[in-house]
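Form 12-C: Joint structure prediction
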Amino acid sequence: MINIILDEKPTSVSIRYNGYYKVVLLLAIINYCAYAKKASLDLLHIVFWALRNDTNYQVLYDVAKQNRNSLVPWTFEHGVDEVLAIGLINEYIEKTIVSDSLEIKITTKGQEIIKSINKFELFQEEISKIKSFGVIPRTRLISANNNWKLI
Amino acid sequence: MFKIKRIRVEILTDQSKGISDLYGFDFGLNKGLNIIAGPNSRGKTTVNSCLYYALGMEELLGAHNEKALDKALKEEFTILKDASTEEENTYKVLTSKVLLEIENSQDICVTLERYIKSTNGDIKTSNIAVLPINIESYLLESYDNINREIYFVNAEGNNENPNGFYNWLSNFITIEIPQVSNNSKTNNYSPLYLQTVFSALFIEQTKGWSDFFATMPFFGITKAKEKIVEFLLGLNEIELSTQKDILNKKKYQILEEWKRKTKSFSYLQRQTNAMVVNIPEELTMDKSAIEAITAVFSKGEDEKLGLKSYLLLKKGALEEFENRPISTIRENREQTILEYNTQKEKYEESKAYANRFEHKLRTEQNQITILESQLKTISLEIKDHLNLKKVFSENIINERGTNQCPTCTQDVTIDLISSKNIKIPQLTLEENTNFLKSQKRIIEASLKSLKETVKEKETLLIYFRNSLREKEYLIKSLSKDLIADDRAFSESDVVKKLQLEREIENLTFLRSHC
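Section 2 - Result
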């Protein structure tokens, strides 16, 4: 008998599937884009979506800067649940209820991380993109989300 | 050569009564065989790993800095309080360090001091301090009175830099590290890194069963295992094989260049309507074979002429044109019809070739765009990988931090691609960075050669278009001749004459550059 052993070979996977990478981005999003450092889940998903490519980025940038009041069809970000779980366990973020809806607030520990990331000038490309959106008001996001256009 | 004389580990715990109330171990080692024996889980491996750690060789244990060591040395350990009740006392580690006394062949004795855990931010676990005294005197002296030379372990240049620990160690143990061929280096050479040499002296208890040198880190050294055996046995071969590796690399470059050059002959043929003959099938240094490469030009169906005779022939034809008066259309009618048909056929053929050529060129230009965007993506990925590594190394986020739900104690994964049912094995951050770097090198290399060929082909395309235009002129003048008054002068003769002049000019240029 020939004994066949199937061996698993590790593959190269993009950093976009690494939980810690996304935790850093998540903290940056809450820190720079959320009003009073509290972000709704919509905001988190949409900013992650905008970071995927330049076209998406331009759409959200225009919404943030009031150059357009509509969104194109967008999708939820994969793995945000796990990223939130890591953030909550490590106390980088906490859950809070703002006018009946769940929002995610960055903790002092989370803000310390963003400070260190900036101190060492890490992930500057992504962070400068996130910063460029500025705080996106909740109402503006909701109204744009109710108004989808194809382009 | 060097002797390891004594190893001492000092651990200060939260239950220590003062700074001299230390835990750890202290063993003297004798010349020759030393055996450390004991029941399971009593720290035999810890003694061994501390030894490697003090020598800066923890990479062989599979990690950098204190990460390679057991948690008893850096976090906490337990001591059985009462054997009958199995009651245990837990001690939290505040600071810990390892001291290793070594002596070289000139009887110079030093102590290596390396921290495993430190509360002082200035003391880094990636540095080793060399103390010019033995452990005995170390224990008698006050800490601040001891002279320390600090060397770094885990950073670029640790083998070459004067402040690199391996550089100091190889000098101390008086071994001369040879230069060997290295694929990861642009200048082809790197030292035979000391970590790779030490892997020959260490048989790890799990990996060691499968292979000698199983713990050897990867540094891009060509045939590293062979090189180490050759080095340790003092064989002359190491120099020769290194040279051989470099020459092999050069050989492939020359072969590639040769293939490219011989391929470009086919374009030359198109440009001049010539045929390049006698191209040797393989790369040769035979001067006569290279000199035999020549271009021949067709005259009629079978007859082939060399450049010189072909040029003479063309010059003769031009002279003939110049000496006779411009003929009228009537004189040339039959010939014009024939010529018109032949030229049209030739034109169609060349046009089809040029179209195919242009199509291929466009595909290659597209490929450049695709490769450039891939290069951009890969460079970004590498940058982010390095950033994340820095996040861990600077301890901004603890890589081995909490990832367990405090309520239900369920594990929370950081791997976002695998699911509960499907686990996708992935390369580690370090491995993936190296993988991406090699991918980047491949893309850069193909992009470079692709750009070169596209540039050459663009020039050729311009030539093809020009030559098509010339043929168009000739066909146009021939067709004008066919419909014009028979008594008029033949326009095609004038065009032919002009084109003949240009061809001679081109051939003369070619000849002067042969």
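Section 3 - Comments
The interface with chain B takes residues 8-15, 17-24, 78-79, 82-83, 85-86, 89-90, 113, 116-117, 120, 122-123, 125-126 of chain A (CB under 8 Å). The first strand of chain A starts at residue 38 and ends at 40.
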